[in-house]
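Entry 0007
Protein: Serine-type D-Ala-D-Ala carboxypeptidase
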Amino acid sequence: MKEKKGKSRGRIFLLLSFCFFILFHSVVAMAASWPTADLTAESAIVVDAETGAVLYEKNGDVREYPASITKVMTALVVLEHASLEDKVTFSHDAVYNVDRGSSNAQIEEGDVLTVNDCLHALLLKSANEAANALAEHVAGSREAFAEMMNEKAKELGCTGTHFQNPSGLQDENHYTTARDMALIGMAAFQNKAFLEIEKNLSHTLGNLKRLPEGNTIYMEHKMMLSNTKFYDKRVVAGKTGYTQIAGNTLISLAEDQGRKVVTVVLKDKNPSHYTDTKALLDLAFSETENQTLGEHPGALEALRKELVSAGKITEENKIHFLDTVKISLPKGASQDGLQYVFTDIEGDVPASALGKVQILLDGKVVGSGYIGKDQNIQVILNNKETKKKVAVAAVTVSGFTILAGFGFFLFGGGALYGAKNLHDERKRKKKWKERRKKNLEELQISEEEFKILVEKRKSEKKKK
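Output (structure tokens):
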């Protein structure tokens, strides 16, 4: 009888264990899947501003009309080519070459304002005459300024965008995509002057012909206004847009607990452009997270072999990321299965960079980082105890090993990788200790000799 009860309990235990196993793996699988959203907008996207990862998109590459969110690009170009204290004189064409009834700040022909005033009118009030006047001030004409906008768009990596004017007024040759506008929003997030202007929810334009006492303009993005039902404290900047053909458009820059994202909705309805944006922010901040890229020797080795085959490095070279790399993943997702794709780079990049590596999960880019190769250094050591030279003992030490060791002496190892918490930091510190110890043992170099190598390498660089 006891045996039967024991067997019965054993079966129940196995059954419960199996159920728990299935439930656990189902939860993990759910946590690792990319989140989705039910939106009204015809096109939408939310992008992590640090990693560049697309956290969710809906028709992200479909061309749509941007309407007045165009003015974010207008502001970026102006901030690159003009001083905030420059004086802008409003021409007849700047004031009157706009659609009847379109957004304006009551600025008249002949009024003179600073670039700073004009940018506030542009971004807070969406004043079309301010867009025209700024374009004329910077480039001489709206047409020439639009070319500058297109050049900037190309520089930022936009592939489905063409600007025809600085205001966003309807034109069949004036279009963009949600993905491209997110790239523009990421650039705006990095522009301190842009963010400073957007912080001001109101601004007074003085000495206007129509309003000599001044005209106070107010922010129109309702998610930034605490007295509206759409207020969201996470939104730190953004721009509204609307035309009958474009529908409601909205770009928003948001931050929560140090993490920054950009949302874009195109061809939306009112007030869905606000509720859709909130849904995208909730998705980004609640259902995804940024992780520090862990060590994946197998994937990195596969990439190294590709670079050897392509003639980028020699067989002796190892490769490493130049800095700590952050990636964006569904909350709780594992980094297993990450893939590395190498791309050549040009322009303003670290001098020691071989190229840029895109990090993918299931074919989706989740982050990127610059990669470099370890340089070989030939060192001849002298035996100080016997005062005899060691027989041309050429010891090969990788530059990265030296940098890592030097960094360890300075920072205790963990700071090199910027682990996201103390537990990870201690684990990485321990790994670095073990790896450094192993490397030194293989090279038959003592700790003291290693320090000498570091100092010698530094002095050689100074002489060069």
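Curator remark: The first helix runs from residue 2 to 32. The chain has three domains: 43-289, 293-372, 376-463.
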